Automatic annotation (TrEMBL):
Annotated Pfam families: NB-ARC, Rx_N
Recorded family membership: Belongs to the disease resistance NB-LRR family.
BP-aspect Gene Ontology terms: defense response
Domain NB-ARC, first and last residues per copy: 176-274
Keywords recorded for this protein, A-Z: Leucine-rich repeat, Nucleotide-binding, Plant defense, Repeat
Entry annotated with the keyword Transport: no
InterPro entries assigned to the protein according to its UniProt record, in alphabetical order: NB-ARC (IPR002182), P-loop_NTPase (IPR027417), RX-like_CC (IPR038005), Rx_N (IPR041118)
Cleaved signal peptide residues: none
Protein name from the UniProt record: Uncharacterized protein
High-level lineage: Eukaryota, Viridiplantae, Streptophyta, Embryophyta, Tracheophyta
SUPFAM superfamilies, sorted: P-loop containing nucleoside triphosphate hydrolases
Amino acid sequence: MEAIVCATHGAMGSVLRKLGALLSDEYKLLRSVKGDVMFLKAELESMHAFLKMMSEVEDPDELSKCWIKEVRELSYNIEYGIDSFMLSPCGESSRKPRGFKGRLSRCMDIMTNSKTRHCIAKKIKVLKQDAIEVSSRRARYKVDDVVSKPSRISIDPRLPAFFTEMTRLAGIDGPKDKLIKLLTEGEVAIAQQLKVVSIVGIGGLGKTTLANQVYQKLEGQFECQAFVSVSQKPDLKRILRNILSQICCQERVSNEEWDEQQLINTIRQFLKHKVLHSNR
């Protein structure tokens, strides 16, 4: 869902820039058309701000998703209409040569572009009506309530992997032994250096379960250890407090006023001189 919001947000930014350019003196707009373009710009700016807030909602409902898709389609339609005008003869700069040739050129423009201008004016009015309908639907179905309501507390789908029993796992010994070898092989000095191993795969393959089994196998070799799960939109303060609570006494993390930097400093200080206990 985040990708849809970002794509719509990006498309909206492009349209707003083009609407701003269309309102500049370079383009000759009928007075009524200019008013409609200004209205469109104001409506889209409001939608743009709302989409920015929607990007903070972790799990918007189906109604919100439908409205976001409508806004995206509206953005594309408006952008197409603007591009059509800018590329048309009446969208060209009004600067013409002076003298007889300039007057003749302007007369030809009036005759050839009058029909085009009215056609574009009609299209702009249709787009304006579409924008009004999208905005009214947002109000009618109270889409704004999704942003104002607190986010629902969702359970990390990887949580059950923390408690999976070994007897229920099949075919995990091979990958587990391979990961353990990657993390522990080498000379003692090398083995004690920081190591990072990535477990990559689609959802549901058991990546978290595998990582947890490796952790349980190796945790006794370290003076302190922690195992945390990080979501797509992580709460850094919560993660740091979780790590701190696992590596030291619970009393050390009771201070709710600590910010991220204070938590990081405390963790760093506690981990000083901690060692890997080699079983060799």
